[in-house]
Amino acid sequence: MKRQLVLEDGTSFIGEGFGCLDEAKGEVVFNTGMTGYQEILSDPSYCGQLVVLTYPLIGNYGINRDDFESINPAASALIVKEAAEFPSNWRSVFTLDEYLKIKKIPGLKGIDTRKLTRILRMHGTMKGTICGIDENPLEVAARLSQEPLQCDQVKIVSTKNPYPSPGRGKRIVLVDFGMKHGILRELNERGCDVTVVPYNSSAEEILQLGPDGIMLSNGPGDPKDVPEAIDMLNGILGKVPVFGICLGHQLFALACGADTQKMRFGHRGSNHPVRETATGKVVITSQNHGFAVNPESLTETDLEVTHIAVNDGSIEGLRHKHFPAYTVQFHPEASPGPEDANSLFCKFLAMIDSHVQEGA
User: Fold this and answer.
1) Residue 322 known to be catalytic
2) Is 246 a catalytic residue?
3) Which residue of 166, 266, 316, 347 sits 20 to 30 Å from the alpha carbon of 279, by its own alpha carbon?
4) Shared fold status for 2-150 and 156-359
């Protein structure tokens, strides 16, 4: 069935619908990863977004049961150049089309994703919709321009109730702003006794759990739409070691008096080089974010920059000068992508040990 993608500036692309054939609306973003479409689809940070994959052939190794980053994907739609109909991989249990149908995610294939990506890079991410080809693109664009972007994504994807992921090691409270399972997996592999809590948990509720450390997860949307988390962070900083990833990094910056800003098209992919300021060492990282910390806003704060993006100089890591707390904008758990920065989880546990010794 022919379907079209219409952007808020009136640009339209006609392709073929696959997966679920419902209408989809949201922010159109692109990811440059060559592989990892299953993890990308199931990453809660894509809540409310129409995801364009720049690699031309998607779905050639199918969908397996192991590589999900959430149980229920939150992406609004998937847009590709070509979707493989006959995947070849010993782990494959579904085709991409079958999986999108099961999860009721609209797909669009057969469009020029290179042209679409160039438009988004030039003009920035835009609102868009996948609809029938009988719709007038200019009329659709006019409606899109009147509709605000979704701002409750974290509430949608966060767990509603606390739950444990038991271990016999350090007790970690993982605040779920849209957590990828890869973060929980890395903590479990290090023996941590993890309790996952909702995004709107108070500082008092978290501290009552007696954590050795607090982990701030990734998540979707604008960090300024989650004021509850900023209040919570102001109540725990300095009391318990903190490690934040992606949205957790941005929320940490806001809680410490810095500011965040929307990027033109963000960082979404598996090959973003990041330089550690202290050593000059460069690691290749997995990233997925559309907001960043404003460098000028750090002047009057107690934060210092630990990592910088090689490509555009944006802030990729922060450390508090006085409290045991640090954050990164990239994803050390990868999934998908390289595991160059995986050692940051060990650094977090070492920081907890140091905090305990200093307290003793």
Assistant:
1) no
2) yes
3) 266
4) no
Q: pLDDT class for 359, splitting at 50, 70, 90?
A: low
Q: Report helix angle 247-255 to 227-236, nearest 10.
A: 70
Beta pairing partners, 128: 7, 26
**Residue 300 appears among annotated catalytic residues:** no
Structure tokens at 290: 């559309």
304 membership: H or E segment, kind and range:
strand 303-309
Q: Which two tokens stand for residue 21?
A: 């054939």
Would you list the domain boundaries of the chain? 2-150, 156-359
DSSP code of 360? -
pLDDT in tens, 155-207: 999 999 999 999 999 999 999 999 999 999 999 999 999 999 999 999 999 99
The amino acid at residue 45 is S
Distance CA 297, CA 301 (A): 8
Known binding site for L-glutamine: residues? 45, 219, 221, 247, 250, 288, 290-291
Q: The tokens of 262 are what? A: 């929307």
289 alpha carbon, distance to own chain's centre: 6
pLDDT at 356 over 90: no
Quote the pTM value: 0.96
**What's the fold here for domain 2-150?**
Glucose Oxidase; domain 1 (3.50.30)
Task: Tell me the per-residue pLDDT of 225-266, one tens digit each, with 9 for 90 and over.
Answer: 999 999 999 999 999 999 999 999 999 999 999 999 999 999
Indicate which residue of 246, 267, 307, 316 is catalytic: 246
Tokens of 287: 């990233």
Binding site, residues?
45, 219, 221, 247, 250, 288, 290-291
The top-level CATH class assigned to 156-359 is alpha beta
